[in-house]
Automatic annotation (TrEMBL):
Domain of life: Bacteria
Domain O-methyltransferase C-terminal: 140-353
InterPro entries linked to this entry: COMT-like, COMT_C, COMT_dimerisation, SAM-dependent_MTases_sf, WH-like_DNA-bd_sf, WH_DNA-bd_sf
GO molecular function per UniProt: O-methyltransferase activity; protein dimerization activity
CDD domains to which the protein is assigned, alphabetical: AdoMet_MTases
Upper taxonomic lineage: Bacteria, Pseudomonadati, Pseudomonadota, Alphaproteobacteria, Rhodobacterales
Entry protein name: SAM-dependent methyltransferase
PANTHER family: O-METHYLTRANSFERASE CICE (PTHR43712:SF2), PUTATIVE (AFU_ORTHOLOGUE AFUA_4G14580)-RELATED (PTHR43712)
Length: 380
């Protein structure tokens, strides 16, 4: 026996079942069997959906870049009518419109014109969604060679797009900061809506949002809970846009802005609750552990911490978070998507108790973990 030879291993029951399902003869039998055909067809569609996902994403990007959905908001149009405005031939325009209809964003009419479907109208109504689709051009390039990416042999562009994560000098570049802040602020509307709907804010008198950018989340909380005082903590160059946001929301008299870095600075005291909204998954375990210790130190006895972000399904992998967000944060080179159990363990290690997790009803937007600092909270 050579060194490379390995003893034969008897297949497990699962292994034998896998071989049976993978047999072309078995698949052909299922496809011919009444009552099982639907399962066969459904699985076939699902597998091809996996194969064609990249083309679907690129079709969506083309629809966004050419503003096709916008052009169809008020009235349907034929391919020929849209082709010239988009700089395409009529044939290529027809291909794109047909793809948009297949994706459910458009609806093909009997006269050959295309109209905006309900999904397309909803797509246009989601703040920041078009900007996120355009932003994906960076991620597509990073994943052009996924094996090299996973082996760490590439230099991901997303790592340069988010220099603030590393505390890099680029985080002070106003243009970089503006791009980041605008992208995050747009997406925060959905995160805030889900957080306010699923997390109990009763009893909180003063909320500090750490890593809160220009204050989009705090503005939403302030409008929903008029009695809560608000504090924002983030990098000095990031929070510059918060003053105008709070003023526009009528919250200037209730909101305080604290410039600083949670990597280097202690957090201000005084808040009885601290929120971390889409912050932890941007950072390494070491950075998160250090941050949670600062959060613990800043809170009074009985104070609450609220973590709101997309989370891994953990023992039950979730397609909406364990694919997209897992690869996205890996491309950032510093963060990672954690399960609620992993976040709970980090909170417990920092000293928190009464840790509770809630799976979001839109987990691709946010799920939630809350905890308290031991001790009785002083009366407000």
């Amino acid at each position: 026996m050579t060194d490379s030879a390995a003893p034969a291993v008897a297949p497990t029951l699962r292994g034998r079942l896998n071989r049976l399902i993978g047999s072309p003869r078995f698949q052909a039998l299922i496809a011919r069997t009444p009552g099982l055909r639907r399962i066969s067809r459904s699985e076939g569609v699902a597998m091809f959906d996996l194969i064609s996902g990249f083309v679907q994403s690129q079709s969506l990007l083309a629809l966004v870049e050419l503003r096709v959905l916008h052009r169809l908001v008020d009235t349907p149009a034929a391919p020929a009518a849209l082709a010239a405005d988009c700089g395409l031939t009529e044939r290529r325009m027809a291909i794109l419109l047909q793809a948009g209809a297949a994706l459910g964003l458009l609806k093909r009419q009997r006269d050959g014109r295309f109209a905006l479907a309900q999904r397309g109208a909803a797509f246009l109504g989601v703040p920041g969604l078009e900007a996120m689709v355009r932003h994906h051009a960076v991620l597509y390039k990073d994943l052009a060679d996924p094996v090299a990416f996973l082996k760490g042999e590439t230099d991901p562009g997303l790592a340069q797009f988010w220099p603030y994560v590393f505390g890099a000098a680029g985080a002070a570049d106003p243009e970089v900061v503006a791009t980041y802040s605008n992208l995050m602020a747009d997406s925060q509307a959905l995160v805030a809506a889900d957080t306010l709907a699923q997390v109990d804010f009763r009893g909180i008198t003063h909320l500090m949002d750490v890593g809160g950018g220009t204050g989009a989340f705090l503005a939403a909380v302030g409008q929903a809970h008029p009695a809560i005082r608000l504090s924002l903590f983030d990098l000095p160059v990031v929070v510059e846009g918060a003053t105008a946001r709070f003023a526009a929301a009528g919250l200037s008299d209730r909101a305080t802005i604290h410039p600083g870095s949670f990597r280097d600075d202690d957090l201000p005291r005084g808040a009885d609750a601290i929120s971390l909204v889409r912050v932890l998954f941007d950072h390494s375990d070491e950075t998160v552990a250090a941050l949670l210790k600062r959060v613990f130190a800043a809170l009074p006895p009985g104070g609450r911490v609220i973590v709101s972000e997309t989370m891994s399904g953990g023992a039950h992998p979730d397609r909406t978070t364990d694919v997209y967000f897992a690869f996205y944060t890996a491309a950032m080179r510093t963060g990672r998507v954690r399960s609620a159990d992993e976040i709970a363990a980090l909170l417990a290690a920092a000293g928190f108790e009464n840790v509770r997790a809630r799976w979001g009803y839109r987990p691709f937007i946010a799920s939630f973990v809350t905890a308290r600092k031991p001790g009785m909270q002083a009366a407000a």
